[in-house]
Design a protein that fits this description.
Blueprint (H helix, E strand, L loop, with lengths): L2 H12 L4 H6 E2 L18 E2 L2 E7 L4 E6 L3 E7 L2 E7 L3 E6 L2 E5 L5 E6 L1 E6 L6 E3 L2 E3 L2 E7 L2 E9 H6 L2 H5 L7 H17 L11 E2 L15 H9 L3 E5 L2 E2 L4 E2 L9 H4 L25 E6 H16 L8 E6 L10 E6 L3 E5 L3 H5 L14 E7 L5 E8 L8 E2 H9 L4 H8 L4 E4 L2
Parallel strand pairs: 1-2, 3-15, 18-25
Antiparallel strand pairs: 3-14, 4-7, 4-11, 5-6, 5-10, 7-8, 8-9, 10-13, 11-12, 13-14, 16-17, 16-26, 19-24, 20-21, 21-22, 23-24
Length: 425
């Protein structure tokens, strides 16, 4: 896929996203678009943009902006635009939206879509006291309101990179640049991944954590601006740029960790302990026999939809490891049966005693058994390394390599084997 072809597809993609985005879209030449009703120039969305699902759990929401904003109401293809400087409520009423102003005054109802468009380039949407660049698209979803932030992809990264890479120092900026390129590539590769939905990304770890304006900082913005438009390709296709916190010394093959096809650039790579500074480089979780039995029973009962008792655990064994040292199969042998758990799912089965709400840090571990004088299993220790799935870029490793003087492009091609960087726009 050539870059020119990629840009063409992006432009065609924007044509299917609705009136508000078309109205606000900025062409590649970066010319401005007149504001609504040809008043003072308003907020615009530059291409490429991404549609981020913020929430879809509430029947009504209160929205506003830092200054005045346009409320675009769409009803059976007809557009009506109102202006406000005060918060408004948007409610789901029997599967359609209603906009309610101060004092419960209904502005418009029976709507298929509502868009909040800040007026002025430095104006931001406000939702639950959080601020977002771009515009806020609202759609009815069953009995709730679906909230989608439509935002220029570079501005999207400003709200993604800080929570993903954490607070960093100036001498670590090359790692921040690497994270920016990886996050940008992941987003570009997943546009329209939810084919029948009005969004491209979810704002959680399902895709990438996105927290809007409140997490922006100068160092991250500098790294994003320095790499603007730069993405990773492999054989003329976007790299599926997975990343994780800490590899523990070696990343892994995607096919070995998940039930996915092999990918040439997502393979096991040693980082020479560049992530050894991470608190998760080495870890231990200790279970008594009854604690581990309870965890396994809880998982199996939830998975099978019925209460299940497995009997006393006799042994825990590792059966096979990945090229990166992660467990392929874990056997839990009880007095009644043998239970087999595979690949990354093992983390959910075992969990932690240190925090029962969390999963095991990684599948890169060894098992140590304590028995009593009669040979009965008393306790199990999981002695491991790393945090996360282990596929793609190790974020703590990238930071460690940056401290050693590596540049962001060197970091990226190290973790994504055989990939190349291209400037898309």
């Amino acid at each position: 896929m050539r870059i020119a072809s990629t840009l063409s597809k992006i432009v065609r993609y924007t044509g299917r996203l609705g009136t508000a985005v078309l109205l606000m879209a900025l062409v590649w030449s970066c010319a401005t678009v007149p504001g609504l009703k040809e008043e003072a120039t308003g907020t615009f969305i530059r291409i490429p943009f991404v549609r981020v699902l913020l929430d879809e759990s509430r029947a009504e929401v209160t929205v506003s902006a830092e200054a005045s904003f346009a409320i675009e109401c769409l009803q059976k293809g007809e557009q009506t635009v109102f202006y406000s400087s005060k918060p408004v409520e948007v409610k789901n009423r029997r599967g359609l939206l209603a906009v309610v102003g101060e004092g419960g005054n209904e502005i418009k109802w029976g709507l298929d879509e509502v868009n909040i468009i800040p007026r002025g380039n430095r104006n931001r949407v406000i939702l639950d006291q959080a601020r977002y660049r771009g515009i806020l698209k609202m759609l009815p979803s069953s009995q709730t309101v679906q909230l989608v932030n439509v935002v220029y992809i570079e501005d999207y990264l400003r709200g993604v990179v800080p929570p993903e890479i954490g607070d960093r120092a100036e001498d670590e900026i090359e790692a921040v640049k690497a994270q920016a390129v990886a996050a940008r590539t992941y987003a570009m590769a997943h546009l329209q991944q939810y084919l029948y939905e009005a969004y491209d990304m979810k704002s959680s770890i399902v895709d990438q954590v996105y927290q809007g304006v409140r997490v922006e900082n100068k160092l991250v913005n500098k790294a994003i601006d320095a790499t603007a438009g730069t993405v990773l390709f492999h054989e003329d296709k976007y790299v599926n740029a997975y990343y994780h916190s800490t590899c523990g010394g070696m990343t892994d093959d995607i096919a070995a960790v998940w039930d996915r096809q092999e990918v040439a650039y997502l393979t096991a790579v040693a980082d020479d302990s560049a992530c050894s500074w991470s608190k998760y480089f080495r870890w231990r979780e200790n279970f008594t026999e009854s604690q581990l039995r309870g965890r396994v029973e809880q998982y199996l009962s939830s998975d099978r939809g019925r209460d299940l008792r497995i009997g006393r655990i006799r042994d825990v064994q590792i059966s096979g490891q990945t090229p990166g040292g992660r467990v392929v199969k874990l056997l839990v042998i009880t007095e009644h049966d043998v239970y087999r758990f595979h690949k990354d799912r093992i983390r959910w089965v075992i969990g932690r005693t240190s925090n029962p709400d969390l999963i095991l840090p990684s599948d890169r571990f060894q098992v140590m058994i304590d028995r009593d004088g009669e040979g009965n299993l008393q306790a199990v220790t999981f002695s491991g390394s790393g945090y996360g799935h282990g596929v793609g870029m190790c974020q703590c490793g990238a930071i460690g390599l940056a401290r050693q003087g590596w540049t962001y492009d060197q970091i990226l091609v190290h973790y994504y084997v055989g990939a190349e960087l291209r400037k898309l726009y």
